[in-house]
Amino acid sequence: MSTHIDAKKSAIAPIVLLPGDPLRAKYIAETYLTDAVCYNTVRNAFGYTGYFEGVRVSVQATGMGIPSMSIYATELMVDYDVQVLIRVGTAGGLSPDVKVRDVILAQGSTTDSSIILNTFGAGMYFAPLADFKLLDQAYHEAQAQGLSVQVGNVLGEDRFYNDEIDRHKLIKYGVLATEMETPALYLLARKYQRQALAILTVSNHLITGEETTAIERQTSFDDMIALAFAVVKGL
Ligand SMILES: O=P(O)(O)O[C@H]1O[C@H](CO)[C@@H](O)[C@H]1O
Ligand SMILES: O=c1cc[nH]c(=O)[nH]1
Which CATH class is domain 9-233? Predict the structure, then answer.
């Protein structure tokens, strides 16, 4: 067991899907996995392991924000030897090219968080990037499924409520959407030399004000989750 995950090492698969929301973890396990076993309920950060079409996979909720993602990603890699980490999260659209319900593959992640500075020191602006193999595979799987995906830079913000940030400047520089965990996932995956990708569903649009209904969100979550499992199957 680790500090925040109460499971034997063997209880977690080498491939893990990472939703922020514990109820999304439960939904994924109950809807997509066979023989799913819940291995963690500490802090209600549910974790399950089961099989997707014969491949052993875990789903672990990470909670919200860079500190929480950092805890789960670190423990999964260091204490459970997880090799492949695929975030399945929601994001707020920024770019006019992004519409609600779209799926985004986060090629890289811009951040206002201090994690980069705290890791590399002043003057080094490390760019957290997706694992190219996973990204390439997800992109080609999406094409094969006829699913329209956007690929690019996402903002991984420290705050959900953030009046100070210049969103329009970020949009001009091609940032597609905003969320709160990907910089930590990509940075830590590089630190421990593992593979990571964030697949995101646009649940709302911060510039147009557009929102999705609960049912619409469910359907677009399913597109994202099906894509994540297609990547898992191709590993
Ligand atoms: O839907 P999840 O995966 O939690 O991701 C997004 O939703 C939360 C904010 O509502 C943040 O965690 C953000 O990154
Ligand atoms: O971090 C997030 C996630 C979804 N929608 C937002 O506006 N922000």
Answer: alpha beta
